Amino acid sequence: MDPVTNPFSPGAGSPPPELVGRDPILAQSRVLLGRVKQKRAEKSMLLTGLRGVGKTVLLNEIERLATAQEYRTISVEAYENKPLGPLIAPHLRRLLYELDRIAGVGNKVKRGLAVLRGCLGALKVTVDEVTVGLDIDPEKGTADSGDLEIDLPNLFVAIGEAAEDRKSAVAIFIDEIQYFSKKELGALIMAMHKIQQRQLPIVLLAAGLPILPGLAGEAKSYAERLFSFPDIGALSEEDAAKALQDPGKAAGVAFETSALDEVFRLTMGYAYFVQEWGYQAWNLAVSSPITKQVVQHATAIVIPRLDQNFFRVRYDRLTPSETNFLRAMAELGPGAHRTGDIADVLGVKVTSLGPVRAKLIKKGMIYSPAHGDMAFTVPLFDEFMVRAIPDFQP
Ligand SMILES: Nc1ncnc2c1ncn2[C@@H]1O[C@H](COP(=O)(O)OP(=O)(O)OP(=O)(O)O)[C@@H](O)[C@H]1O
Ligand SMILES: [Mg+2]
Known about the structure:
The protein is α/β, with parallel strands linked by helices. The chain has 17 helices and 8 strands.
């Protein structure tokens, strides 16, 4: 098939040709956006899921829904060791200027800018692009204590009031939110708590790894009453087939049932892998329908590609003791495993594994789906570890 017209889109955040299996979350988002706009109480949403399940593309789709409902949106991606203040401030400034342009007589927007200005000074945000253009006197005493847990809620309230004043609503999108520190996450949660108490039109929509509900709960115990944590999982067999068939059909190309079965067997329905197999199978196929044999040929290309790109980048960030821990985990096969069993494979005491396990959780490599259990955050990582270290000697 012509590679130029290949509809499949493996990548980070690349919109798929067909966003399958997410209708319930999209319906929930529509209700949430509709309610917040009418200033009715509703839990903000933190999507959680493993690497490559499709959190980013889903978050982007929800942003389109928000824009269609005439929300003003902010969209940021957190990354390791980047503080929240400088990350979000330029976007808040842009938002306030946008609100300023909406006709209205109130002075809440100007006040929002003054509060933001005060907050930036206190947080010592000296990023030029942020302070420049804020030629307004800082408001003293509202959000300028320098303590994020005090300032962020006050800043959000000022912004919420500005939006309310202009009969607008604000949706804040944060991807990879698990990278914020406990203090920052706590400040965000407190800010949303205050917004909800005042019934102001701000909603938070975020995505992160499955460690997120735990982190949020640790930061503030009331987080679970403030947010819903929809679990974004692998696609069902039917949806995975649809993700291949529908874009194929649109281009006049069919997949044999046995080919679809083989992709599902290999990918277990993980969206990113489905796109990779679809993409390579398309390029290899000489005619429609795409057969199981073509998929098998594609496998020989996809696996080394995944190893080099998707898996290797994570593997290369591991220390030898972390590698050893993960390899022992892989020895136990797919799914979640008790730390005690991992210790047994390594022939060490379970208590000695505490520090390395904590580091791996912090790096986002593993998480605890249930007390005492450990699982990979990257789908099929166990198979990769076995390929990377075939002769394992603990
Ligand atoms: N619902 C879906 N149907 C079909 N393909 C999808 C779906 N969701 C995501 N994909 C595809 O899966 C891949 C990964 O998507 P995305 O980058 O959104 O995942 P992610 O969960 O954000 O991953 P990460 O945790 O690494 O950031 C992309 O190639 C995307 O096109
Ligand atoms: Mg993502």
